[in-house]
Design a protein that fits this description.
Layout: E1 5-10, E2 27-33, H1 42-50, E3 55-59, H2 67-82, E4 87-91, H3 97-106, E5 110-114, H4 126-139, H5 148-158, H6 165-177, E6 181-183, E7 189-191
Parallel strand pairs: 1-2, 1-4, 2-3, 4-5
Antiparallel strand pairs: 6-7
Helix pairs in contact: 4-6, 5-6
């Protein structure tokens, strides 16, 4: 069974999104519009319609400090009740959402805030995943996993347990292709300097 990733976009705060990243992924997007956003540009609407089955528009209908934030938090909670196994992503540069993410995590939910779509692990392309893992391997040489299973666990932890087994395997294969790691016959990892 595939976990659904719910992406809540604070559209007052983040307007640059790459909607093509959600195509064919187990993703539902809730685009939360602020009180001042009563009209959307036609090019944006066309992009949204290409992914209509995965999209939900929510108009706050209210203006004021944190009005959108409260509405977004309400929708996160409502969906959490109906799908407690979902992964909840909040796309916003507003660090105020970190308290909501922390509360969700403290209560057993998988949740994270991202500043952009490209930071959402399951929406990253293989090259973006490999770049991030390679960077971590270089920066934390003393914490490098010794075996393939350990590297698989590290990759999942890096991406918030949101990758499929196939995505993890593909990431390792790309690391091997780029010669960042070599896999021995006994499943031991050998790292480039």
């Amino acid at each position: 069974m595939s976990r659904t990733n719910y992406i809540f976009v604070d559209f007052e705060n983040v307007r640059e999104t790459d909607w093509e990243r959600i195509a064919s992924k187990p993703v539902k997007v809730v685009l939360v519009l602020g009180g001042q956003q009563s009209q959307l540009p036609v090019p944006l609407v066309k992009k949204l319609l290409r992914h209509a089955a995965q999209m939900q528009l929510v108009e706050t209908g209210r203006a004021g400090k944190n009005a959108l934030d409260m509405v977004l938090a309400h929708y996160v909670g409502a969906i959490r009740v109906t799908d407690p196994e979902g992964y909840f992503h909040i796309v916003s540069k507003d660090k105020g959402f970190d308290a909501l993410v922390g509360h969700l995590n403290d209560n057993g939910a998988l949740a994270r805030r991202h500043a952009s779509f490209s930071e959402i692990p399951m929406l990253m392309n293989p090259e973006e995943r490999v770049a991030l893992v390679s960077k971590q391997i270089k920066e934390h040489a003393s914490a490098r996993p010794k075996k393939r299973k350990g590297l698989e666990s590290k990759i999942q932890a890096t991406f918030g347990m949101s990758l499929s087994e196939a995505d993890v395997a593909e990431t390792i294969q790309c690391l091997i292709r780029e010669k960042a790691v070599t896999l021995s016959d006994t499943d031991e990892m050998i790292y480039a300097t």
